[in-house]
Amino acid sequence: MKTLKDLQLFAIISELPSYKAACQLYPESIVADLFELVCSAQKNVALQSAAMKIGLKLNPEGGVDAFEAGAAMLRGLSHIGLYTIKKNVKKMRLWIEPALTFDEKERTLLEPTKFESHEPIEPQGGLADNKDLILSKYSQHDKPLNYLFISKINKVPFKLDMDILLNFNGNNMPKNYNRVTAAYLGKNIYFNWKFDSRGRSYSDGYGLNIQGNKTVRSVLSFANEEVITDPEPLYVALANARGFDSWTWNARIAWAKKQTISHDVVLHPDTKYPEKYVKTIRAILDYEAGIPSGFPMELDATASGIQIMAAMTGCETTANEVNLLDSTCRKDVYATLARNMNTYDGVIVTRKEVKYPLMTKYYNSDDVPRQSFTEAEYEAFQTEANGMLPGAELFLKEINKCWNPRALNHSVTLPDGHVAHVNVMTGKEAKYSYEDVTVKYLYYVNKGNKTSFRSLSPNCAQAVDGYIARQMILRADFEMVHVHDCFLYHPNNNEAAKRIYREILASLVTDFNINHLIKGLTGKKSNIPVDASLADKILNSGYAIS
């Protein structure tokens, strides 16, 4: 939880008799966490959830002891006027109900402004351990992390785009949007980046976040501006914002050249990303006027998880479906699957409807496809998907074999020295009784099991995904950030970004393929045939990121 001391409301809460009374019994930092949990929620909170959150502060080891400690604190402070413990005997439910009331101004202050403009934070060391850079209590480890990546990406400054703010203020933005943005007008904004246990990286901000959705990140531009030297990347960005990112480069550019480029933008009702479309129009006008721009060009990997599996297994069939072969044709694996499924009687599905089921299929999920489709659609999905991407199927099968049911964790060292280290957390159920109500709660222990093997394939793919993102930033001699497999950079660096991505994917074929991954996970040599010739073909592909 964020500390209450990061909230403006702390000045009000800290003077309350209930707060002072609680601090006589428990450390102030934990009391602040409790008050934040109850006050910022402003609604009923399940006792099980509150007890575990508070208990982990009292007993970081977790488990039953943490829950019991949290529940004891909730019981012990139920008299101070912060909340009341409620129960429903018939339904066997327990919850805490906030008792404090706030006026309109105070309710506004309940929303945290944790994110502050600051100078870029420089982590200590090169490849070393630093728990401050790892998200989540259960993800902590002392293995090496790539600080060089954190150091570089932390230094990328952004600024607010006033044009987008004025024209789109309030549309799909966070509820505290006005107050957060007002604090950063005219200032450089730096984000703090952290890793999860697999090595995927996340920007740490509140309200404004470069890893937010396209609406939110459209209000951010690079603070370091350049005169745009080539309009074609902007034409691609315009077509992408309209929703035509599955077209070829030439088709997108030709379409964009036919559009009216004017300050008086008329948006087509089907425009996929209106804010980004307007932002791109403004960037084209800046190009035409020779005005420096901080416009963030964005290109996404096309089915990144399947791309990774194709490259690491050297499978040309799979690579061909996810744009790692042809330089002239823009493939869409999800649209292809939907089209094939629609040849079956009684089946009518869209690209959007098949995307998530196909992604999760290679992450060991059969539940998602079953729940997403009718019986006829599911049968068509299974028939058409099976054999369509043999490299992904091979990756899944071989990585599943690497699961050790007795291990407390599974870890692998990526080529940059960063260690992906995932603890095996096994869920346990326990019961808690309060007066005449008994409820169940779930807690986790670091213990091996046979059933969590399904997590290994997605964790490994996402560990490699994190490595690719780090390499994209470190190999570039220009400013770049990422939203996982989407990369943001100045339009002048468009061709360089595409080249770097191809080079990294090609290196997975020869320098860190499935055999290297298996050896890292198990310590045992693996000799799965991997066609090294795929690397050169990836280098000559055209739409790996599009």
What does this structure look like?
By secondary structure, the chain is of the alpha+beta class. It has a domain at 304-405 and 453-539. It has 24 helices and 16 strands. It has helices at 10-13, 17-23, 28-41, 47-58, 63-76, 104-109, 147-153, 162-168, 177-182, 214-217, 232-242, 249-257, 274-289, 304-313, 316-321, 333-341, 351-361, 367-372, 375-385, 390-400, 456-475, 494-510, 514-522, 534-539, and strands at residues 45-46, 83-88, 93-98, 127-128, 145-146, 158-160, 192-195, 201-204, 220-222, 297-300, 409-413, 419-423, 425-434, 437-446, 480-483, 486-489. The strands form seven sheets. Strands 1-3-2 form a three-stranded antiparallel β-sheet. It has a three-stranded antiparallel β-sheet with strand order 10-16-15. A two-stranded antiparallel sheet has the order 4-5. A hairpin with a 2-residue loop joins strand 15 and strand 16. The chain is globular and about 70 Å long. The chain starts with 9 loop residues before the first helix and ends in a 7-residue tail after the last helix.
Number of helices: 24
- What is the CA-CA span between the terminal residues? 37 Å
Tell the overall outline: globular
Structural class: alpha+beta
* Percent in strands: 5-15%
Low-confidence stretches: 1-7
Beta strand count: 16
Can I get a quick summary?
The protein has 546 residues and is α+β, with helices and mostly antiparallel strands. The chain contains 24 helices and 16 strands.
Secondary structure blueprint with pairings:
Elements: H1 10-13, H2 17-23, H3 28-41, E1 45-46, H4 47-58, H5 63-76, E2 83-88, E3 93-98, H6 104-109, E4 127-128, E5 145-146, H7 147-153, E6 158-160, H8 162-168, H9 177-182, E7 192-195, E8 201-204, H10 214-217, E9 220-222, H11 232-242, H12 249-257, H13 274-289, E10 297-300, H14 304-313, H15 316-321, H16 333-341, H17 351-361, H18 367-372, H19 375-385, H20 390-400, E11 409-413, E12 419-423, E13 425-434, E14 437-446, H21 456-475, E15 480-483, E16 486-489, H22 494-510, H23 514-522, H24 534-539
Antiparallel strand pairs: 1-3, 2-3, 4-5, 6-9, 7-8, 10-16, 11-12, 13-14, 15-16
